[in-house]
Amino acid sequence: MTRSARRTRRMLQVAGVSAAALLILSACSSSGSGSDKGSSASSSPKLSGEVTVFAAASLEEGFTTLGKEFEKDHPGTKVTFNFGGSDTLAASITSGAPADVFAAASTKTMGTVTDKKDTAGPPATFVRNQLQIATLPGNRERISSLKDLTKSDLKVVLCDKTVPCGAAAQKALDAGGLKLTPVSYEQDVKSAVTKVELKEADAAVVYKTDVRAAGDKVEGVDFPESDKAVNDYPIALLRNSPNPGTAKAFIALVRSAEGQKVLSGAGFLKP
């Protein structure tokens, strides 16, 4: 074998050893990367325990659906809801009622809680809601405007003025220069809708979401003054949350694309 041939052979052997070394290093690096990923995943805290959510009555349908989805996605968790008038819920929170999350039907009501420094951080608006007139199916009274509700022969129900839906209704009436004396003021929007469903009232000024939730039990009538009384809905983690980690995850679901899809389906407007 010539000197030139021996030199070529020796160069090929060296190249082969180098290539093998590179393959081994690559495999080790890949193995280490996979190990780190697994270690990172295993170190992520698993969500567990109960989360108590105080939420405006108008959120009942949408939040109930999201609560079930959350429990399904995170076995070992439980979401418990307390639905009611936002002002009543806010008063309970500031009085020390144990809860993890508060979702209010107005920024003013949420302000009652933030003013007492009972939130763990600034609230975030996650949806908006607009008013509609709920009438009996078929709209026998032929109600077509907010002004029609001022007729003396009609039995109309409003939410109490301290409740967000009642404050919004009053704002709409003021925008139209109208005065209305209802047969009753209800403590939450669900109670107002129920009055119509039971035929104890001819109409009620409520949210579009509640008209939709009632299905064929009531009929909805739009009115232009509602554009002046759209409510922002804020949500916040509470300062004394017993389960903040899981509570934050639920809030994240509410604000996610998936959560927004569910709430939009319930009739809420995007924030």
UniProtKB/TrEMBL annotation:
Signal peptide feature range: 1-32
UniProt keyword annotation of DNA damage present: no
A Pfam family matched in the record: SBP_bac_11
Organism superkingdom: Bacteria
CDD domains per UniProt: PBP2_ModA_like_1
Family: Belongs to the bacterial solute-binding protein ModA family.
Name used for this protein in its record: Molybdate ABC transporter substrate-binding protein
The species this protein was found in: Streptomyces violaceus
Designated gene of the protein: modA
